[in-house]
Structure formats: C-alpha cells, structure tokens
Amino acid sequence: MIETTDLCKEYRMGNVTVEALRGVTLSIEAGEFVAIMGPSGSGKSTLMHLIGCLDRPTSGECTIEGVEVSKLDEYQLAHLRNKRIGFVFQSYNLLARATALRNVELPIMYSRDAKDHHSRRERARQALEAVGLADRVDHRPTELSGGEQQRIAIARALVNNPDIILGDEPTGNLATEQGEEIMAILQQLNKDGRTVVIVTHEADIAKHTRRIIYFRDGLVEGEDILDNP
Amino acid sequence: MIETTDLCKEYRMGNVTVEALRGVTLSIEAGEFVAIMGPSGSGKSTLMHLIGCLDRPTSGECTIEGVEVSKLDEYQLAHLRNKRIGFVFQSYNLLARATALRNVELPIMYSRDAKDHHSRRERARQALEAVGLADRVDHRPTELSGGEQQRIAIARALVNNPDIILGDEPTGNLATEQGEEIMAILQQLNKDGRTVVIVTHEADIAKHTRRIIYFRDGLVEGEDILDNP
Ligand SMILES: Nc1ncnc2c1ncn2[C@@H]1O[C@H](COP(=O)(O)OP(=O)(O)OP(=O)(O)O)[C@@H](O)[C@H]1O
Ligand SMILES: Nc1ncnc2c1ncn2[C@@H]1O[C@H](COP(=O)(O)OP(=O)(O)OP(=O)(O)O)[C@@H](O)[C@H]1O
Ligand SMILES: [Mg+2]
Ligand SMILES: [Mg+2]
C-alpha cells in the first residue's frame, strides 16, 4: 500500500543543506494502523508529505497503492491525493477567510463527479457533526479555539472517504477525552478497511495503533508491534 | 499577582453570541507554578489572552501585579505586556518572513532602553540556544518543523526576562524528551521567582506544576494541589 525505498529529502537554503530524510525504507500494508514517533525535527512531517504526494523526494522511491509517485505528473498526483488520501496537517492549513463548513466542503469541490456536488453541503455537515462541531459551522478559523481548528482539519481529511488517512499530530491540541474520541473515529475507519498513519508524540495516543515506527535524525530507528485488535 | 473576579468574555458574530468565559474568579500568587486543563473550547486561551493583557473582558475584573487592567490605556497595556509578561501562543504567531533570530529579537526591539538594543542579537542567540535551536537561527518559520516553530515561540517569550510567563500549550508539538527539557527550563525560571502559568492537555506535563485548575464550559470546575517542591 505505502512503500518507500531509501527515501531521501534535502532542503537547500543558500549554502546550507538540511538532510531531513537520510534513506528511509519502510512498508505499510493496506489496512494497517501505524503511529510514527520521534523527536522534533527528526523528519516525520517530511515523510508524511512525501507519502501524501504533497512533495517529491530528492532521491529514493515512494510507491502508493502500487504506483511509483515520481512517475506521475502534477495532474495525476492531484487526483491521487484528492481521491485516495486524507491529510491532517500539523498546522491545519485552513482557509482563514472561509467558514468551517466551506473548509470541509473544499475537497469535494475538487471532485469531477457531479453527484458529489449535490450532496456536498450535507456531507460536510455530517463530517463536522462527527467531530463535535455542529454548532460551529459558520465560524471562521480565527473565531475558533485551537482544538476546534484541529477538528475541522480532521473533518476535512475524512469527508471524501479516503482509503489512506495521514494525520500529522491529529490530537495535538485536544484534551484527553476529545483525543480519545478522535482515536475512536480513526479506529472505526481502520476497522472498515482504511489504512491509517498518524504522527504523534503522545504514547497514550500511539497505544491505540498496532505498530509504532520510531524516527531519529532522518532515519528509522526501530519499531514496536502492539498487541491490539 | 494575577487576580480575576467574575470575569466574562463574549464573542459576538452577527446574531450569535458565544459565551467563552462565564464568570471566572481565580487568584494566582507571585511565584506560583500553575497548569490550566480542560476540554477544547472550554475558554482556556480566552482566559490567557485576558490575563496576558492581549484582550479586554466583556465584564468582571482582571488585576495584574496590583493594576486593574481595564483602567490602562493601550500604551500602558503594551508596556506591561512587553516588560512583565512573556506569552507563548497556541499557534505561535511568528512573523512568516523573518528568520528565527529576528523573531526572537522582536520583543527587545520594542524596548525603550538603549542598552537593550546593544545586547539584542546576543540575547536572542542565547535564548535560541537554550531551546536547542542554535543551528536554525537563519531559518524562516516555513523552513522549520512544527516543534521547532514552537520552540522559537518559547524563546521569544523568555528573551525579555519577564516576571510572568504564560504558555498556551507550550509543549503541544514536542516529543516527550524535548517537552521535558522545556518544562525543566520553566521550572528553573519558576525557582528564580517567576510566575508560570501553562495551558496543557497532557497530564504528564501538568504534573511538573504545583497546582492544576480545571476548566469546563467557560467556568472553573475545580483544582488540585500537587505535592511538588
Ligand atoms: N474570535 C472568536 N469569535 C467567536 N468565537 C470564538 C472566538 N474565539 C474563540 N471563540 C469560541 O470561544 C470558545 C472558547 O475558545 P478558547 O479558544 O478559549 O478555547 P480553549 O479552551 O483554548 O480551547 P482549545 O483547547 O481547543 O485551544 C470556543 O468555543 C470558540 O469557538
Ligand atoms: N522548507 C524547509 N527548508 C529547510 N529546512 C526544513 C524545511 N522544512 C523542514 N526543514 C528541516 O527539516 C528537519 C525535519 O523537519 P520535519 O518537519 O520533517 O520534522 P518533524 O519530525 O515533523 O518535527 P516536529 O515533531 O517538530 O514536527 C527539521 O530540522 C527542519 O528544520
Ligand atoms: Mg512535524
Ligand atoms: Mg486554546
């Protein structure tokens, strides 16, 4: 489902090069529930952007659902992202001037499927209801708390029923009880067959998954298999 | 040091009113080390903005170091904020086009004290070094990981040696080890006599403080005293 081989990513800034990923090889099967943990700056978000088809590697290979992503053009990449992948960004990336409802409708608006557009408003409402924000649909991001913005980002990632859900610190701004509610949603989606990968720094969140991959300095350092259903 | 009496804050949006704080009365002595916990949307950031002199209440009183803040004009409020209070925002509020170094220098640039300006660059470097970012001084926020941005926000809050440190989820994007390093910095500052108040949703972080205040639906629900040095 998701495979990387010797994946490297460098950021160039003038005469300085930051080696964010230094040869990452890993494999995630369809239907897995995986957590990625590691110190700040160890390359977790960089990896998520590459497997989420939001960026291209400097070298190495990245294969999503059997497709080598460096062989796709921008148009095919955008289609894969929109149809197959739901991404929760570490800093949410919400449109500041749009309401919660419009932010969640956005992925549906990119669909080329006409019937998607008829049900768009209703599906966005349901997604917001599922994360407890039914009474915040008309608020803009600046009129919402940190945890509410995070939940909009989660709702938006799920509204297109993606096969693969990638969450970069999806519960970072949520208190324990609400973090557990989000994990319950992700667990259910995983039981329904979706592949879920989350970056988290909280062990209490990671313990809901079935495998934890540890990062350090741009490399995979090790992993744990958890005895969960 | 920090006292609120029946503090209320309403947000008006068209014909909808959100009651973010519904009568909060609390008192924090100089030198205390306090955590504030509670569900997403319960009013924690709103309270922090009021006691940080970044916003005004709808009703009720807020007194900082003996001064009733609603009696201050904008100029006096800005001076109090700059000299006395260090604020770590939940969404960092960094200048996107400035380097890490310039972002941390910013509070010193507002000082009216000439000798502050001579030592500015050096003090900013030291603050960044204290949070482990000595080798990221020339990066801009978009060229940094989430946890690195968070640590710049922390360095900026501390660079003016404030009496009161207010941190809104200061370790939200930091893995356990680095979260502990930040708590060690805050603990040392507290031992040196500073008042530290942090919002956190992680019990492991809150256990470093000496008192936890619990929020729910815009009100204080209760508190715990912790047996810490
Ligand atoms: N500018 C605003 N306009 C309208 N409503 C707002 C505004 N800012 C906050 N709110 C609402 O006020 C309530 C309290 O917000 P606040 O940011 O204080 O919560 P919080 O406890 O910090 O939550 P979190 O843990 O998610 O950061 C929320 O329900 C939010 O929707
Ligand atoms: N656009 C960029 N330009 C230059 N350097 C970058 C850029 N983006 C990230 N970096 C650097 O690459 C490294 C890895 O960043 P990444 O965002 O993947 O870390 P992370 O593991 O997600 O950290 P965190 O837990 O703090 O979110 C960091 O040291 C960061 O400074
Ligand atoms: Mg990250
Ligand atoms: Mg908040």
Query: Quick one: overall form of chain A?
Result: globular
The rounded distance between the terminal residues' Cα atoms of chain A is 20 Å
Which stretches of chain A are low in confidence, meaning pLDDT under 50 for 5 or more residues running? none
Average pLDDT over all residues of chain A: 93
> From the helix content, strand content and strand pairing of chain A, which structural class follows?
alpha/beta
As a percent range, the share of strand residues of chain A is: 25-35%
| Alpha carbon gyration radius of chain A | 17 Å
Number of helices of chain A: 8
Largest binding interface between chains: A-B, 34 and 34 residues
Largest sheet geometry of chain A: 6 strands, mixed
Q: Output the strand order for the largest sheet of chain A.
A: 6-7-8-3-9-10
Order of helices and strands of chain A: EEEHEEHEHHHHEHEHEE
What small ligands are held by the chains? adenosine-5'-triphosphate, magnesium ion
